[in-house]
UniProtKB/TrEMBL annotation:
This is UDP-4-amino-4-deoxy-L-arabinose--oxoglutarate aminotransferase ArnB. It is an enzyme of class 2 (transferase). InterPro entries: DegT/StrS_aminotransferase, PyrdxlP-dep_Trfase, PyrdxlP-dep_Trfase_major, PyrdxlP-dep_Trfase_small. The keyword Protein biosynthesis does not apply. The gene is arnB2. Its EC number is 2.6.1.87.
Length: 364
């Protein structure tokens, strides 16, 4: 038995005729920077997210960086981030010269603990930056409420949450700006790097559109020092094809997650907790156990690939050594890093494979 964590080649093969047609349409068009394909994807992605605007970007990290820049966050400012996240969330804050202020997760959802946010707010705080980790929506209502009471803006890191719903409404415009990654392994994945922001705020959308293209809307007229972070039209064309199957592929993830949850109910593993207001996108199916390393080894011997999201929390990375946060200052992030295990999940994984994985876990 050989079960990969995620089979991106199989995803391509399922859509090969449509993707190949889209690719050759762009190649034949002779238009390789921004243009109609990017605009069409922006319109379709905004509509899918129930947001007024989408702006296509080069990757998810840039989406976060440009969202922060659009809100004028810079040196001297503080941004509240989860302690338990992919490091890109923190790196975006550092990239604009601001300080990430980590908040520990809710121990059952692993997402930012909204009860801990208020105590971390200082006069320097500008933005709350929740992450919809593993495709599980963060608890947005308390976050938006705290932001309103303290005059803060909200940026959502939705890199793992394509199609996830919070209280019946798709992630895409709860906060001021929502940041997306279309990295190949994400639920809506390109064939290379790609990203976007969505927002209901026309001025913010305009600002990000300016920043992504050298600070210019009109060629050779530069309104501010921007960057080059444009969505590639080849990737936009691929994303348009994959967007049409996103809901169906999310349904498949949901079915796999549900089989895992049923099959592992008596396993002793701590399974993902889904609050009744959440409809996750199931980017990852993450179980928790103090016995993680041994279990991962046994699965590996059985030919089953698993991953750890994430083995080293941001505050323990060398990249953040100068913040001098002692490991124990964020004990929950530290515990999760040594106990979480992501099981294979993806639209091309069969339900029978989940049964194999459940059996292997029971035998381990
Ligand atoms: C993938 C990811 C990012 C970064 O996206 P890239 O497109 O790889 O730059 C940011 N935040 C989270 C939570 C992610 O999972």
């Amino acid at each position: 038995m050989k079960i990969p964590f995620l089979d991106l080649g199989a995803a391509y093969r399922e859509l090969k005729p449509e993707i190949d047609t889209a690719l050759s349409r762009v190649l034949e068009s002779g238009w390789y920077i921004l243009g109609p394909e990017v605009e069409a994807f922006e319109t379709e992605w905004a509509a899918y997210c129930h947001a007024k605007h989408a702006v296509g970007l080069a990757n998810g990290l840039d989406a976060l960086v440009l969202a922060l820049r659009a809100l004028n966050v810079g040196p001297g400012d503080e941004v509240i981030v989860p302690s338990n996240t992919y490091i890109a969330t923190w790196l975006a804050v550092s990239a604009v010269g601001a300080k990430p202020v980590p908040i520990e997760p809710n121990p059952t959802t692993h997402n930012i603990n909204t009860k801990r946010i208020a105590a971390a707010i200082t006069p320097q705080t500008k933005v709350l930056l929740p992450v919809h980790l593993y495709g599980q929506p963060a608890d947005m209502d308390p976050i938006l409420d705290i932001a309103q009471r303290h005059g803060l803006r909200v940026i959502e890191d939705a890199a793992q949450a394509h199609g996830a719903q919070y209280k019946g409404k798709r992630i895409g415009a709860h906060g001021d700006i929502v940041c997306w990654s279309f990295y190949p392994g994400k639920n809506l994945g390109a064939l290379g790097d790609a990203g976007a922001i969505t927002t209901n705020d026309s001025a913010l959308a305009e600002r990000v559109a300016l920043l992504r293209n050298y600070g210019s809307r009109q060629k050779y007229v530069n309104k501010e020092p921007g960057v080059n972070s444009r969505l590639d039209p080849i990737q936009a064309a691929v994303l348009r094809v994959k967007l049409r199957v996103l809901d169906e592929w999310t349904e498949r993830r949901r079915a796999l997650a549900s089989d895992y949850t049923l099959g592992l109910a008596e396993s002793g593993l701590i399974l993902p907790h889904v609050p009744d207001w959440a409809e996750p996108a199931w980017h990852l199916y993450v179980v928790r156990t103090p016995d993680r390393d041994r279990l991962q080894g046994r699965l590996s011997e059985a030919g089953i690939s698993t991953l750890i999201h994430y083995p080293i929390p941001p505050h323990m990375q060398k990249a953040y050594a100068d913040m001098e946060i002692i490991p124990e200052a964020l004990p929950l992030a530290l515990d999760l890093a040594s106990e979480v295990l992501s099981l294979p999940i993806g639209p091309q994984l069969g339900l029978d494979r989940v049964q194999d994985i459940v059996n292997a876990l029971k035998n381990a």
